[in-house]
Specification:
Strand content: 25-35%
CATH architecture: 3-Layer(aba) Sandwich
Strand order of the largest sheet: 6-7-8-3-9-10
Radius of gyration: 18 Å
CATH class: Alpha Beta
Structural class: alpha/beta
Number of helices: 10
Shape: globular
CATH superfamily: P-loop containing nucleotide triphosphate hydrolases
CATH topology: Rossmann fold
Distance between the termini: 42 Å
Length: 247
């Protein structure tokens, strides 16, 4: 294994997924490297979120492999499966907080449900992650008391509670105003720099993509048809690819 392979934390090979007769993913291949942020662009309804859901096991692919830190995810059992669930954090569009739990309880929840949890107090860890998203004073609030942007920041804090190697973001700035969207984008960059996490980000927010992406890949007709930096793809001779940058 060469050094480049050692730096691959997630590898998708030959991924296929259909719903009935409709092909959504057609031989999708992607490698994500350590401390890299990859943005996925594509038209609405073309399968971007399906890729993320296949990675975390919410959807089963028809064929292909997904490897996390060198291990095929479909063969994981026991401790390996538990480690995988810690290694990969998934930030949903809504933040997906539990409405019946306080912010503190939302952040504690992924920790206390781990098999190796011994009843230790995790308050200091909760406070640390809330400080990361500048919401330490919201520790005892309920989700209903939070704005949309605050809910997304709390969702990110909860994702970080298990120290994931990889974070998957599904439209992290959808529904937010320009200022709050920039705050979320800044947080994504900050968490990469502070914790060295690798990320796949699905977004239609091109200012966000420009701020966070080390590499951008473009999905069309179930395949990745281009990849490159923001500047490279914005100058593409292909009208479809260049259309994403006309905002």
């Amino acid at each position: 294994m060469d050094n480049q392979d050692k730096n691959i934390v997630l590898k998708i090979s030959g991924l296929h997924k259909s719903f009935g007769s409709k092909v959504i993913l057609d031989n999708v291949n992607l490698s994500l490297h350590k401390n890299e942020t990859v943005v996925v662009l594509g038209r609405s309804g073309t399968g971007k979120s399906v890729i993320l859901k296949c990675i975390v096991g919410l959807i089963s692919p028809d064929s292909g492999t997904i490897e996390i830190n060198g291990k095929d995810t479909k063969n994981l059992t026991g401790e390996d499966l538990s480690n995988f669930r810690c290694d990969v954090g998934f930030l949903f569009q809504s933040g997906a907080l539990y409405d019946s739990m306080s912010v503190r309880e939302n952040l504690e929840f992924p920790v206390i449900r781990q098999n190796n949890y011994n009843g230790e107090d995790v308050t200091s860890k909760v406070v640390e992650q809330l400080q990361n998203v500048s919401l330490a004073d919201s520790i005892d609030k309920m989700p209903s008391e939070l704005s949309g942007g605050m809910r997304k920041r709390i969702g990110l804090a909860r994702t970080l509670m298990l120290n994931p190697d990889i974070i998957l973001y599904d439209e992290p700035t959808t529904g937010l105003d320009t200022f709050t969207s920039k705050e979320i984008s800044t947080l994504i960059v900050k968490m990469k720099e502070k914790y060295g996490v690798s990320s796949i980000v699905i977004t239609h927010d091109m200012p966000c993509a420009k701020m966070i992406a080390d590499r951008i890949v473009v999905l069309k007709d179930g395949k990745f048809v281009a990849q490159g930096t923001y500047d490279e793809l914005s100058q593409s001779p292909d009208d479809f690819i260049r259309s994403f940058f006309s905002y």
